[in-house]
Amino acid sequence: MRRILVMGGTRFFGKRLVQRLLENGDQVTIATRGTTTDSFGNQVQRMILDRADRRSVQAVAHAGEWDIVYDNICYSPETAQYAVEAFDGRVGHYVFTSTLSVYNPSGKLHVEADFDPYGVDLHEPIVEEQLSYQKGKQLCEAVFHQKAAFPVASVRFPIVLGPDDYTKRLEFHLERVHNETPIYIPNMNAHMNYIQSSEAASFLEWAGTQLWKGPINACSDGTIQLAEVMSIVEQAVGRKAIMMSAGSDEERSPFGVPDSWLMDNSAARQAGFVFDELQNWLPPLAKELAARL
């Protein structure tokens, strides 16, 4: 029986990951702030974790010897360093949830080598409070891959969608079309990747089992133009969208990128992971969420 720690496992794809691990018969501990309840009952062990507190991370790390640690809640190089120190000699494999955001929107189909965490200069002065989401995740990867004595996989996800998405990014569009409220998308011709929450959980589980080391892209097969996304939304709602080429932050779509933002998942596919087709799940998801309006 594997001993597995999931940092951030009470909602969205983290919760789905925990469920998959339990179904495998793993002994699972979830470490969170303790503010979100879960439905796992006595199937899991629980620890309170303040990810930004070095001593809190150490307490969780030293609670056992871990076969796999899944880290879904690391956003700064400082907190990555806490984990590197705390889990030294205490973990067999570490899976860090990273992001497509380590790449810039450029129209290019990004491969893993387009951002090299091993080549980042970690000696430059950093003001944590001023870090963007992108820079924070880039530096997290750099700390893990340059400093950790244990093997680390950095799983780079695009936007994750699902019926359990607490950020409600797809619902933003469905609700505004339903309410006949304008939506601002700066570039309707831009293409994007997505992954569904169940698939993201499956991939994280796989990355831990495969003992993958280094960065790895994970997205559903296929890309989609934002104009087509809006067509799917319109069909799900049964109304035409009111689109704007300029607008406020409140009106701007969570998918409103200036250029195509894409990743290549070939490395993971060649390693044996079978991704879902984007077109097979996005339209049904839109219809499922539209039925809740």
From TrEMBL:
Superkingdom to which the source organism belongs: Bacteria
- Please give the coiled-coil regions recorded for this protein: none
A Pfam family per the record: Epimerase
Instruction: Give every NAD-dependent epimerase/dehydratase domain span.
Output: 4-208
How is this protein named in the record?
NAD-dependent epimerase/dehydratase family protein
The organism encoding this protein is: Paenibacillus arenosi
